[in-house]
Write the structure tokens for this entry.
Amino acid sequence: MKISYDTVEELAELAEAHGQRISDIVLKEQAQAMERSEEEVYETMRQSFQVMRQSVKDGMNPDLRSASGLSGGAAYKMKRAVDQGRNHFGYLFGNAMSMALAVAEYNSCMGKIVAAPTAGSCGVLPAALISVMEDKNIPEEDIVMSLFTASAVGMVIAKNASISGAEGGCQAEVGSASAMAACALTELFGGSPQMVVTSCAIALKNILGLVCDPVAGLVEVPCIKRNAMGVSNAFVACELACAGITSAIPASEVIDSMKKVGQQMSSSLKETAEGGLAATPTGCRLCQQIFGNYQ
């Protein structure tokens, strides 16, 4: 078993050729590449998942506040609205958003998170998987295995485009995380390997061109709320793919397009805090408020 991680289509073709899920072939290949047993590699992933679960729990603290004062407490408010039945689009959707906010806020408060694929997009994948796990009573083993599919998709994106906001904008961070989550969900719900590929394409197309414009250069505004948007997009891509809806543009071409869009994007819109929301009057005021004359 050898995987080049050149395209998402390659992952699907190998899985279909072996009559397995993408996660199965990725686990096997990674064990061989690292010269470890599959059980050891699985356990490492399981431990990462436990960190994800803990970050969701700790991020729900109502008293959580970042050093800058820009974030904290939003996850608790969203969760409270969901538990009280005050949200409008169902428990699963609201719960997933609250979890995405929780992990992203916990990151801004220097909590321990899993960068999946980055710290700025750390809330998307945990929120998608844990909310679905709890709502649908999915065994932990299936969730952990789906992380291998998500990771493989992330490796393909990193190899062919970027997962860095400084290089490709937020499309490379929250966009990649959203695609990874969509692929994991699609496999969890019994989607074929080709449906997994489709969900990747749809998720990335939906966030193509998203800029990285952190206010005051901090991974808080608007990054945290974009994590909630990212998990919502993952749900959309999964639903469409599992319904049999296809993408007119192949996933590999979408990823290539994302790279080119990132290259064409102004440097002011790639994590420099010189454009977008960071350059608004309020964004500048907040920067001055936090850093004074040092920024």
The chain has a mean pLDDT of 97.
